[in-house]
Design brief:
By secondary structure, the protein is mainly β. The chain contains 2 helices and 10 strands. GO terms for molecular function: serine-type endopeptidase activity.
Length: 201
């Protein structure tokens, strides 16, 4: 988001490019309303998180709602073995003729202990990230999915955003390499100081 002049944010639609779904809501923001993390590192992709302040609020209804932030305790809980859901409109394969998805795609994944990511991305693997191995079924994020949500359903039934799609292997999305997500719980101080919201302990 750093350097962007304006943003268009949509909600309530699985096909936002069509612009035809009556449930879709659209709001705007400018570059002045963007807050990239002050310590974002383009070389090691550390602190890969940012916030955008909307000029007008979304109206919550049956199709648009807020996602819950993680608790501070999730910053130290590795959540190994926990099922999680990724989503995005990125490329659907490594085929050079393949385009981005026209409908929001979902995939179920399981959080790893980080060994797979450390072995592949030794110099850019940190505790502020979450690791997913894709070798088993090759489900993965791809180019165009960056910044998308990684969510889990907690014991109380509420969906919580624990991660943001950060990066994968340059060898391709279908090659079975692990993918890495920014751990949102590691940046609750940044979110609180920027927004004034208070996170759960």
């Amino acid at each position: 988001i750093d350097g962007a002049q304006k943003f268009t944010i949509t909600a309530g639609s699985l096909k936002p490019m069509d612009g035809q779904e009556p449930t879709m809501q659209v709001v705007k923001a400018t570059g002045d309303n963007a807050y990239p993390h002050p310590n974002y590192d383009t070389n090691f992709l550390d602190n890969d998180i940012g916030l955008i302040e909307l000029l007008t609020a979304f109206i919550f209804d049956d199709y648009v709602s807020a996602i819950r932030l993680p608790s501070y305790s999730m910053a130290v809980d590795m959540m190994v073995g926990h099922p999680a859901t990724i989503s995005g409109w990125g490329l659907t394969s490594d085929d050079p003729d393949a385009g981005v998805a026209d409908t929001l795609m979902f995939a179920e994944m399981t959080i790893d202990n980080g060994d797979a990511c450390y072995s592949v991305y030794e110099n850019i693997w940190y505790s502020t990230k979450l690791c997913f191995s894709t070798a088993k079924d090759h489900k993965s994020t791809c180019q165009g999915d960056s910044g998308g949500p990684l969510v889990v359903q907690e014991d109380d039934g509420i969906w919580t955003e624990i991660g943001l799609t950060s990066f994968g292997s340059s060898n391709g999305c279908s090659a079975g390499y692990p993918v890495v997500f920014t751990r949102v719980a590691s940046f609750l101080d940044f979110i609180e100081s920027t927004t004034g919201l208070e996170a759960r302990q």
